[in-house]
Recover the amino acids of this structure.
């Protein structure tokens, strides 16, 4: 199922997107227009949600709703993974921009950092490049994993049982700030630098992600293209790495890293400029498109 957060006639809702044509408003079923809440109650409301979708109860024309980020207000920072594709790890190591303690090519353990909730924007909303004082804005197409279960993930737990679904994230980055401040939060936490969406695809619709391809296009030109099976640390490993000691919560988001082809991989770097349009694509999750201003 494709789950969305949306606005319709000035009101916010949560719903299911059907064939990209209709939106079944699930707000009356879960009683709050809040995706964090929907995720938390999803298992207990599964039958009512399925029935609303089957009968097209409260169906709206998809063209008449405004899509928001599926989780417009994450309850806490988005967990992110650095250098999680081999070719990108080499590309970043060779770019001269990796001033972190984990500099070097391929990491021995996952590099985890975070982006604040205030960086999140939805499909179609502009990335404000003017907020980077060093004019070094770069794109990073990433698979986002949405957590559906609370608790720590011990060695005895199945990490896949924590996965609620998947979305797309553009881990937009000021390379200048990333380099200048060693730690990555300032370079990656800027307002509007976390486009997310267009939907959350629940795990029942995509049993395995390995064969899916992620792509990034800038003004229609393909810059990044890789199979998700190329992740150095796969999704279960990432969940166990984070959840071993940090209690996970329904609605947590993990951005799983980006493949080769980012702007600093080019000589000279191809930074994003006002007027550009960036698209992150994974079929069947959809297309996350954002203009740059
Ligand atoms: Mg990234």
């Amino acid at each position: 199922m494709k789950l969305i957060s949306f606005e319709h006639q000035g009101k916010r809702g949560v719903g299911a997107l059907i064939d990209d044509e209709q939106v079944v408003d699930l707000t009356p079923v879960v009683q709050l227009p809040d995706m964090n809440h929907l995720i938390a109650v999803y298992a207990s409301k599964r039958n009512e949600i399925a029935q609303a979708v089957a009968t097209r109860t409260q169906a709206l024309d998809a063209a008449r709703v405004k899509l928001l980020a599926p989780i417009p207000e994450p309850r806490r920072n988005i967990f992110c993974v650095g250098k999680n594709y081999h070719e990108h790890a080499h590309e970043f190591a060779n770019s001269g921009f990796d001033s972190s303690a984990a500099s070097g090519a391929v990491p021995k353990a996952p590099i985890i950092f975070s982006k604040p909730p205030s960086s999140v924007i939805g499909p179609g909303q502009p990335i404000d490049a003017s907020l980077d004082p060093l004019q070094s804005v770069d794109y990073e197409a990433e698979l986002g994993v949405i957590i559906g279960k609370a608790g720590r993930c011990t060695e005895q737990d199945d990490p896949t049982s924590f996965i609620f679904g998947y979305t797309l994230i553009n881990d937009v980055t000021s390379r200048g700030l990333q380099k200048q401040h060693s730690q990555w939060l300032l370079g990656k936490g800027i307002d509007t630098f976390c486009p997310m969406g267009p939907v959350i695809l629940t795990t029942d619709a995509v049993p395995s992600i390995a064969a899916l391809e992620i792509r990034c296009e800038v003004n229609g030109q393909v810059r990044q293209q890789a199979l998700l099976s190329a992740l150095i640390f796969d999704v279960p490993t990432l969940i166990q790495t984070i959840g071993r000691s940090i209690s996970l919560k329904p609605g947590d988001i993990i951005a799983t890293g980006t493949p080769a082809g980012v702007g600093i991989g080019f000589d000279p770097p191809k930074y994003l400029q006002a007027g550009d349009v960036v698209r992150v694509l994974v079929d069947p999750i959809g297309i996350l498109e954002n203009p740059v201003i």
Q: What stands out?
A: The pocket of magnesium ion is lined by residues 80, 140, 142, 171, 255, 257-258 (CB under 6 Å). Residues 25 and 58 are 5 Å apart (CA to CA).
